[in-house]
Fold these 4 entries.
Entry 1:
Amino acid sequence: MSMQQRATIDALLRQPRPAGNGSVAEIRAGFRALMAQMNVPTEIRTRTTTLGDRPAVLVEPVDAARAGTILYFHGGGFVFGSPETAMPLTANLVTRTGFRAYSVDYRLAPEYPFPAAINDALSAYRALLDRGEHPSTIAFAGDSAGGGLTVTTCLTARDAGLPMPAAIVAFSPGLDMTRTGESMDTKAGIDPLFTRASLEHTGAMYLDGQDPHQPLLSPATLADLNGFPPMLLQAGANDLILDDATRLATRARAAGVDVILDIAADLPHVYQSFTGVLDEADEALDRAAHFLGQRVRSGDLGR
């Protein structure tokens, strides 16, 4: 790791912004401005489409796509973010794997609190299956809250009698609305982006009075992961919600699920966004692409 690279990113993330404490409009605008600074590969083409009940952005490599589909869920605490803000991650997965990706524009709180985002994610997955795509050619991927959706969408799909996708990739997943992980305290001040107060501010919008002690809100401690597909969980060691990933990995192993827990030292939440700026970001996405390439089955690309 280049210490200068890490210091540059740490300073960027510590710049004053309403990172969870301002109004909804301020939070959304601040996040858009932050993510607009990230690098997006140019070797892609995109178009707006519909998947299930929601708009989505289809991201494809410029050259012919390999057989396989990534269903991507963006981050943003269920309150902010969009397929556009997640494009640095979605596009990098597409260019590295050769697969196409659908990035779902799921509904956000406070206008649409829990479980709207999960329902939209499940609807998108069902739409892929209904059009004839085999689950072994589909992988779920997401960052932060969207990383949490990779897990909760599997839970709801399993409960609905749907088959599991081929794999899960989650970058710094948010998996515990009870906020009981030790890292919530041990990483306080070390995390350049989050505070407990900022997470609780946006979390309350999504919860809308619901008890967080339920599997779809806190799968890191409460979910039954039996029958889950192989998963890759990547997180930075400086992340306030680091223990969301570590505890889910423990539950996955106990349930007999193949799981890789990939923690990068001295790095923040969703550090994978900083491609071209942080060596570890490019390396992490290379590992994620390799994992997906191993797990997603080859075959005819359904249209």
Note: The chain has one domain: 3-295.
Entry 2:
Amino acid sequence: MKLAEALALRADAARRVEQLRARVVSSARYQEGEEPAEDAGSLLAEAEETLDELEALIRRINRTNAVTVIDEGLTLTDALARRDVLRLRHALITSAADSAAGRDQRGAVRQLRSELKMLSALPVGELRARADVLAREIREIDVRIQRANWEADLLD
């Protein structure tokens, strides 16, 4: 099985656990004299089984990520960490640029010349250019990660 297939199975299992959790919660109590909509005990057991399968799958994915090299010395785990931090950095820079440009100032437009003028404490253009570079880096590393996901075989 390829790593990408395992990632899809992991997502499916996580969704299944959440659906089962919601069904357990809705069936865990019922009114006296009525029957519960579903057997909460069997739903709970099914959720536990699915969680065990999910844990085994996550362990295999993590082992595979740790040993799969996508570039000179860069493992898939390293690339995922890099992509996560690039996304956080991009969000930070974009938010800073938006704020400096006044995008978050709802209705804070000067009505009179005597009102105080708001000034930018950061170079908006430079921040936007930096955000563009970060977005490109995110796309590039994401392509490499996706390629590795489809090429790497899942470890046992």
Note: The chain has a mean pLDDT of 93.
Entry 3:
Amino acid sequence: MPHPAPVAAPHRLPEFSAAPPVGDLSLEARLAAVDAAMTIRLEEAAVAHEVRTAHIPTEPVALADVITVPLTPTLQPPPAPYPTPVAALLQRAHHRLTTSGWCSGTLVDAHGARCLYGAIHAEARGDQTLESRGLEVLMDAIRRQFGDDVDSVPSFNDAWGTGRVPMRMVDQAAGLADARGL
């Protein structure tokens, strides 16, 4: 049986390598090429993730609620005080809550922990004007974050099971008071 005649090979494009041989590139050039390739792959993966999860409703998470570190309150020095009186009051109240503890349902519990109002009241040291201005700025900071549904500082304090969010709000209110020059 005769062998079939060879068929002409179809026209092929010349083969080009995507990159010059490795020996021709310096280490820095190879690292830059790998970095560029990985950046493109990561960007494509991020877009694909966004598309796959776009329908899932999410709420933003405050990092202070997620990332916690062990506190040794008695060993922590008080922070440098703000120069304005209301900001300094709120900063002292925050430090008191950090060192003495936070509670809800009462101004001061049996262990000396205080609620937000109790800490501000104690740190105002009888100055009613300073106390009311501190509570006013704290309410403003709370309403900025949680809306106008919050009635009072005690009701906000008692709505939480842990002191992380209330204490964070006192710290933010101190920064707000400082920014306002109060």
Note: The chain has a mean pLDDT of 82.
Entry 4:
Amino acid sequence: MIIEPIRDKWEGTMSDRERFNNQMHFKPVDRCFNMEFGYWDENFTEWKLFEENGITNNAEADLFLNFDTIKTIGGNIWMSPLFKEKVVEETATTKIIINNEGLLAEVPKDGHDTIPHYIKSSIVTPEDWKRCKEERFRRDDPTRKVAIEFLKKLHPVDRDYPLGVSCGSMIGKVRDLLTFEGLAYACYDYPEMVEDMVETCCLLVEDFLDQVLPHFSFDFASGWEDICFKNGPIVSVDFFKNVVTPRYKRINKKLKAYGIDLWFTDCDGDVRPILPYFLEGGINCLFPFEVNGCAHPSELLHAYEGELRIMGGFDKMALGNGKKAIKSYMESLVPLVEMGGYIPFCDHRCPPNVKEEDYLYYLDLKEKMFGMK
């Protein structure tokens, strides 16, 4: 499918790669890097903008709205093989399923985009983990071998866009596997099991990095560590400091050896209690920085000036409250864009309650304020 952009790309005198690297390293740029995190699934059926133009997913939307290009290389660094998903029970409105990570979960029958209600994990005891690890977390799994030559053709040396390498998750995916409640109990009942799960995640990422780092000039590293909610981290700060951060340090050592000094991770909620340990471990950028669960991005960018970066941080609530709220919030970001180390976009997937005309106003205003003058 050939996608015809509905908007012109922002004018510029630098390549997307040059602009991204300069902006995230507090250096002069021609204009702000222009990107968004994406949209809820409902947006693609409820927004005429997308529905009438056949835009069905976030990758297509990025092309359709002509954002700057940013890409990431990832590998098979998690459970392999996954479980076969199956329906266990159905009601009029919901399905009880075994999902692809072996969790018993309740999901809406109509398939609308929402967080499932997790009922039970397949891993509760160390014996459960031992069996799952032997079957589904083997480091010698042949599917973990990276197709280097294929990726080289996709991402040539003379590319003009920033390219990242995925460093996965040390504890966020463990939370997914055990469930929120299950992780809380396991940290108390089976701390050695949880640490071994974190160590396994780290080893799989290290194996992947050893394969790809020699072959690409990466501009950043990325990760996913959804381990916080509005009241802070769901594991203790001591656990995070003593178990998770040392694994970050090992990964960061490999990244630094290949010149990668920008590492962002996706973590919602209030990250402030564990932010010092993110930084200590080498993670120096937050993405997409959920405002209502934490703070206005200026609070942390000033508190850790020159050390921390943020990508995101445009309050989705303001985005849904109309043009006046959008303009007011956008104006509050001006000093941060001027300071560098900050790229503004919606602080999570844009929800469907945002009106199409307001979203287009937001994009226009962002270009007016942060595009080339």
Note: Residues 191-212 form the longest helix (22 residues).
